[in-house]
């Protein structure tokens, strides 16, 4: 099996590459532009493996995509490359429009060019998995779950750009017959997560005795999935999923943000005792503009049709994650020097009067 993974130097992409190379023994080509979020160190476990190759390239570069795909001759393309952080998309959306929409279009066209030249058997076996987010569905109230049929209603520039890319992927299947499958997953957490997102930021700030910024009242709900469970799901979806279909991915682990932050503090307090409980570092800060209240995934289709199950609960996964950050400073220290955790994603009206966060308590 020959698989191209775009965005393979990112958080989820690197977990997927490790799974495909080390657990499945597939031949894998990682394509990644190594933006601020891309990190070759995340691929250290596979860098010397004969069944892994890396190409630094931008998915918006059609010529580079044509060459990489033709040279590698994949059976599958798993497309994860994206700008992924909501707060950054609020500060500036241009890179999100470029990579998530124009880049996905460019990759779909390159894949279509390659696929249309394949022999009949290879052509019918070929698959393109477009990896997306549950944020395309917008925000839930207190009740209900996102299903595959939930109408799209994105709130942030990030989720709007992902929604656009999902529609492109579906259109390339309906119009050109490209064998596309789409997956929409809930919030991931785990090792190698860039320390701008809630969970890694909270772990590192709490380890360093810095303030822990919680947006608004901390009552927004996210449905957390351990990243290795997502990686396995993606492999199962591209292997067994039906062409043209969407599969939602989630582990039934809804938590309010404040409870996530408190849990991380409790785990750290258990592992390294301090003078005072780390939850004293929590600081409620100005809310995110357009902040979605609640996400929750119904993964029944993936579970019943394709036989996937999450292995980790939130409590087992978060303990593994905290331990990993404690033991792997070599990975996060250079990133922390590049991005110090300062607040992103406030509009001008909200910046005035907003406390500076991430500073020493
Ligand atoms: P990430 O930001 O950690 O990694 C993105 C990777 O894409 C980086 O390695 C970056 O260098 C690369 N990249 C960015 N622009 C590129 C370009 N123009 N060309 C080539 N490479 C480029 O993101 P992630 O959290 O690993 O997310 C991966 C995918 O999964 C994204 O498509 C995201 O929308 C989706 N997703 C993420 C989550 C989550 O909780 N993180 C949940 C559901 C879906
Ligand atoms: P994040 O990790 O940015 O993921 P997403 O916006 O894609 O869900 O944020 C998760 C939740 O945590 C979201 O409700 C915003 C909130 N949040 C904070 O309260 N404080 C923070 O410092 C960050 C980064 C996020």
Task: Describe the protein's topology.
Elements: E1 2-6, H1 11-23, E2 27-32, E3 52-56, H2 62-72, E4 76-79, H3 86-91, H4 94-116, H5 120-125, E5 127-133, H6 157-176, E6 180-185, E7 188-189, H7 198-207, E8 212-215, E9 221-223, E10 225-226, H8 227-240, E11 246-249, E12 254-256, H9 257-271, E13 282-285, H10 300-306, H11 314-327, H12 329-338, H13 348-351
Parallel strand pairs: 1-2, 1-4, 2-3, 4-5, 5-6, 6-11, 7-10, 8-13
Antiparallel strand pairs: 9-12
Helix pairs in contact: 1-8, 2-4, 4-6, 7-9, 9-11
Bound molecules: nicotinamide-adenine-dinucleotide and thymidine-5'-diphosphate.
Residues 6-7, 9-13, 32-35, 37-38, 58-60, 80-84, 99, 103, 131-133, 162, 185, 187-188, 194 line the site of nicotinamide-adenine-dinucleotide.
Enzyme class: lyase
Organism: Sphingomonas populi
EC number: 4.2.1.46
